[in-house]
UniProtKB/TrEMBL annotation:
The keyword Transmembrane applies. Keywords: Membrane, Transmembrane, Transmembrane helix. InterPro entries: Alkaline_phosphatase_core_sf (IPR017850), Phosphodiest/P_Trfase (IPR002591). It comes from Actinoplanes philippinensis. The chain crosses the membrane at residues 16-35, 47-68, 74-94, 106-124. This is Type I phosphodiesterase / nucleotide pyrophosphatase. Gene3D superfamilies: Alkaline Phosphatase, subunit A. It comes from the Bacteria. Pfam families: Phosphodiest.
Amino acid sequence: MVISGGVRALLRRARAVLRSALTTFVVLTLTLWLMPGVAASDIVDTLGLVVLVAVVGAVLRPLLLVGITALGGWAAMLLGVVTQIAVMVVALRLDPGNRISGLPTLVTAAILAVIVAALLDWMADAGSDDTFVREARRLMRGVRRRAAGRLISLRRLPAGTEPGLLIIQLDGVAEPVLRWAIRAGNLPTLGDWLRSGSHTARGWHTGLPSTTPASQAGILHGASRQIPGFRWYEKETGKLMVSNRPRDAAIIESRLTDGQGLLRDGGVSISNAFSGDATTSLLTISHAALPGRTARGWAAFMASPYGFTRALVLGGAEVVTELHQARLQRRRNLQPRVSRSGAFLALRPASMLLRDVNISLVSEQMARGAPVIYCDLVDYDEVAHHAGPARPESMRQLESLDRMLGVLRRLTPEAARRYHLVVLSDHGQSQGPTFRQRHGETLEEVVGRLADEALVVSSGNLSMVYLTRFPHRLRQAAIEHAHPALISGLAGHPGVGVVVVQGEDGPMAYGSGGSHRLRDGVVVGLDPLTPYGPHARADLLRHQSAAHVGDLVVISAVDPATQEVSAFEELVGSHGGLGGWQTDAMLVHPASWTVSHDLDGPDAVHRQLVDWLVMLGLRKPEAVPLVAVETS
């Protein structure tokens, strides 16, 4: 017997209603049982309350969704939680049995019910994203029907035929880590793409600095040389710039943009450092705002029982998981390791929440038909910093991101365009004990012994030293005149691999046993760049041309046996400098697409992505300037 699409949809809806009713029944039964002083009730009474919750939700949720959409931003987050609690409070207040009375008791019971419901849904969906997909599809269909002016029609709109490009950044995933995880079978979505031949994977070299802001400045704007590190000091203004601080990010973007960014023609930036000249920017640091009234995906996520409230409850479970994993590292004396308490405890649930919000926002923009969407997912990078890039808990985060790619692939039939998926990373990570752990002191303390006026600004195992009383960048002779022991003292420290300074004949790289003149490659003694691979000279030379680079640039040593580096920050997994896998980023793209650029540096990746946009008809080719020809 052939079942029509309409009947299948009706059956799916019936199963969803039945599941919702069963979940509500269990939730109410447990809640009433757990509440002290509440009289027992029979099954019929509880079933009546189930119906009441459904009716109240059907009436109240759409009204509150309107309010959430109108308010946007932080108010939407607050009202999203209130929505779930309010539905339960009203239903319990209208309960004919009047088993719970008094507003404080009602609110307590409602909160308990919401928590139990979130946990039950999580257990029911363990290993599956079906509920999340179902909610996202409902959102997308609603967006498309509104765009088509069909507010009441229940017919499914046909899939879009015009091409679109969806670019997902998996923050911090090194190309060797990706390939290893795929071979191990831990990334079934990406593994299926590669094994089926629909996509291919390749590495690309990030150069220096290997940080998200520098890479995104290049990928999104083609201007990576504006950023010398994750943070830096500007002598002209006396200001310390921190690239993930919204006010600083806005200033930085004003220097990057020429109006020709990757996302300029109707594109959307989601959770990035910079906008790429996008028409729509959501959760983008340089724009420093939560999604507003026009982002229905934000409102729908906040109002849905499977959205913000569920993520909030499960975020608490992430904190417990983090505490357990940290304890296991301590009991096993796993090395290297760093403290995983404090602010990092909040990062685990926050990154999980942000991931789900991002996918909701991406699905909405796919339904709207945005020509190109660029979204950064940070889960893996945040955990790997503190756990280690190849540790089990980090790999679990990578597996969850692979599931999200599967969710996006499942949502493409609902989109207003035929989206092609590209997955890339902005850098990798390198593991190792911190500089302080290995040598018993920080780099700041080392520099303080050698010079009493220097500011040390670090990004992973890259550090820049600024002599702040001088208003301009100093050459080697001036530094040695002011502080005779500074350069030699740093170069001779066992934890330092390379010190770079501007010499009379251009940039010089010094190590404990020799020097390397970067401009022409002349080496005296032992080459300090050998442990950092074949790109090191070009990377350091390019970095010396970056804006606001330090008077001295310091890179920590690389362990030749393990390829471990020592971060100048308290991170067991780090990036920013050179050594290990931190400069080994990855790019996964449709196999039939031609790669016409040598992918050396994020600016080259920008040019390649622009070429693909031109190929898809989403961007006009750049005009070639005419050369005037003199005639006699």
